[in-house]
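Task 17 of the worksheet. Students: predict the tertiary structure of the chain below and write it out as structure tokens. Keep your answer in the requested format; marks are given for formatting as well as content.
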Amino acid sequence: MGSKPLRRTPGRYALGALAATGAVLAATACSTPEGGGGDGDAAEGPFTIGVSNGFIGSEWREQMLSTLEDAFAEYQEEGIVDELVVESADVDVNGQIQQIRNLIRSDVDAIIVNPNSPTALDQVFAEAAEQGIQIVAIDQAVESEHVTNVVIDQAEWASISAEWLAEEVGDGGEIIAVNGIDGHPANEDRWEGAQAVFDEAGVEVVANDFAEWDQSKGQTVTRDLLSSNPDVDGIFVQDGMALGAFQALQAEDKVGEIAMTGEARVGYMKQWAEQREENDDYTSIGVPNPPSVSVSALHVVVRMLQGEEIASDALDGNSLFLPIPDPVTDDDFDERFDEVADEPDAYAVDHAITREEADAYFE
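Model answer:
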């Protein structure tokens, strides 16, 4: 085979064209990769990797794709992979089913999917598995036996900031909650984890609404909830919306008066830094939700394609749980902020397992 054209969207955060449509990132390859690897046997490389992303309404997803592209390029230079086929658009479940079928027709060896549903994609996952395609889900877990979830525990992730907020407002405290997308698997897992903490701590959630992991919507939803519940003690807000929630508090002149969970993103951390200078008593927390889970999944799926087996004690059901990075707190804020202060406001504090750390999950 001759040289394939390279079509790559330039710039780390200039992923608009890539995120809005299916795209192929191709490099020079000397042979057509063989499909397979789904039975645990090693397949010949280089491997073609597909990506299905069904939601493009957040900068987090852009960072997820960008870091994956960078990591893929390193494997590409080593001749281990040859093409990254990306299907990325704002679609419902049926649209994501079509994305995955497109990837199957593209003769990919593996699919990395950020799923829109924990169960509704089961049939198309089975179709891919029948073709010997390895499937890895990221960001949120799915139930299909044909899929290996490479994820953080979203319930545990939410419980960390919920525990902080419960301590701030105390037994009998009243809070409002700004959550992500109603019915979305990651959102449901997070809220289940947070609610368990609040119930145990005696914290009452007086109102709950959804802002779709969007800062502007986060500001609007927080403003509306505060208008109906002006005397609350705290706000639980998921990442991707905390800066907007903070701006709503600013508009009501209630920053520092109402406790609020934050986020480990640069835009919010800038506001946190300013508050620390103005008010020694200001406190917050930001639990990283690393977009580079995509990179961790790439390390895992490459090893699966190479015939390695995940150790049985590394799995919880069909899930390989990644470590949740340490939260950003008042105690280590200055050091953590210095590490990312020059990044764009939308940048999320990130982490991926290394190749060596990925090796440890395998027999």
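Marker's comment: Residues 16-152+290-322 form a domain with the Rossmann fold fold (CATH 3.40.50.2300). Residues 59-77 form the longest helix (19 residues).
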